[in-house]
Amino acid sequence: DRFRLDGRIVLITGASSGLGNHFAHLLASAGARVAVAARRADKLQCLVESITAAGGQARALALDVTDSTSVRNCFHELTSWGVPDVVVNNAGITVTRPLLEQTEEDFDSVIETNLKGCWLVATEAARRMVATGRGGSIVNIASILGERVASGVAPYAISKAGVVQTTKVMALELARHNIRVNALLPGYVVTDLNREFLSSAAGDKLRSRIPTRRFNELTDLDGPLLLLVSDAGSGMSGSTLAVDGAHL
Ligand code: NDP
C-alpha cells in the first residue's frame, strides 16, 4: 500500500492543537513514528499519550519555529530516532483585523511564525535529508489565502503567499536530492485559530459564499495529506494542493 508510512519518521510542527494534532493521529495510524513539536509541552504530552494508547509511536519535542536555535535543537533532539523522512510544516498564527488597524507587531509576528518559521524548519530539514542521501518529503501547510485574498487577514495572506513560493523554490532546488516539497492549501476548518471569527455573522456570510456551503472537516484533509507525504505522491513536487470546496 503506497499510502502507508511504516518505519518512516515524521516531524509535525504546531501539533499541540487543530490540524497538527489531527495530522499526528492520522500519520501515526498510517504506521509512522511521529515527532510532535510546538511550544505548549502539556498539550503535546496529552497527544503523545493518546497516540501511544491507540498503539502508535509518538514523542514530543519543544519547538518555537521563530527561533533558529530552537529549530536546530529540535532536529538535534530527534537524532536519537534519526533524520525525518517527512516534515509537515504546520505551525501558524493569524491576526484578524482590518488592514489599516494591523500594527507592525501584528505583521512581524505573523510573518515570523508563518513564513520565516516555515523557511527555518524546511531548510534545516532539507540540509539533514541531503546529508542522509535518502531524500524525503516536506509538506508546507499554506492556505487558500496564499493564492486568493479576503478582507481582514492581510499579514496572514501575505505570509501564506510566501509559503507557496517557498515551496516552489525549494522543490526546484532540492529535486536532485530526491526531496519533494509540496504545499497543502486548506480552506476553512474550525480550529482555535479562527473559531471566534467563523462563528460570527462574518463567518456565516463567508460560508454562504463557499459553493459547497460548508467549512471543511479535519478529515477532509486526510487523503490529500497522505498523498503528499507518502510514496503514493512520489511524482509530485512543487505542487499546491487546494482542499477548499470549490471556494471562489
Ligand atoms: P491552531 O491555532 O489550532 O494551531 C496552531 C499550532 O501552531 C498550534 O499547535 C501552536 O502551538 C503552533 N504554533 C504557533 N506558533 C508557534 C511557534 N512560534 N512555534 C511552534 N509552534 C507554533 O490552528 P490551525 O490548526 O487552524 O492551524 C494550523 C495550520 O493550518 C496553520 O499554518 C494555519 O495557517 C493553517 N491553516 C488553517 C486553516 C483553518 O481554517 N483552520 C485553513 C488553512 C490553513 P503552540 O502554541 O503550542 O506553540
SSE arrangement:
Blueprint: E1 9-13, H1 18-29, E2 33-38, H2 41-53, E3 57-62, H3 68-77, E4 86-89, H4 104-132, E5 136-141, H5 154-174, E6 179-186, H6 195-198, H7 201-209, H8 222-229, E7 240-243
Parallel strand pairs: 1-2, 1-4, 2-3, 4-5, 5-6, 6-7
Helix pairs in contact: 3-4, 4-5
Bound molecules: NADPH dihydro-nicotinamide-adenine-dinucleotide phosphate.
Protein name: NAD(P)-dependent dehydrogenase (Short-subunit alcohol dehydrogenase family)
Pfam family, one: adh_short_C2
GO molecular function, one term: oxidoreductase activity, acting on the CH-OH group of donors, NAD or NADP as acceptor
Structural class: alpha/beta
What's the number of domains?
A: 1
How would a crystallographer describe the biggest sheet?
Answer: 7 strands, parallel
What is the CATH superfamily classification? NAD(P)-binding Rossmann-like Domain
Question: What pattern of helices and strands is seen along the backbone?
Answer: EHEHEHEHEHEHHHE
Major sheet: order of its strands? 3-2-1-4-5-6-7
Shape: globular
Detailed description of the structure:
With 248 residues, the protein is an alpha/beta fold. It has one domain: Rossmann fold, CATH 3.40.50.720. 43% of the residues lie in helices and 16% in strands. It contains eight helices and seven strands; from the N terminus they run E-H-E-H-E-H-E-H-E-H-E-H-H-H-E. Helix 3 packs parallel to helix 4 and helix 4 packs parallel to helix 5. The radius of gyration is 17 Å and the shape is globular. The mean pLDDT is 97. NADPH dihydro-nicotinamide-adenine-dinucleotide phosphate binds next to helix 1 and helix 4.
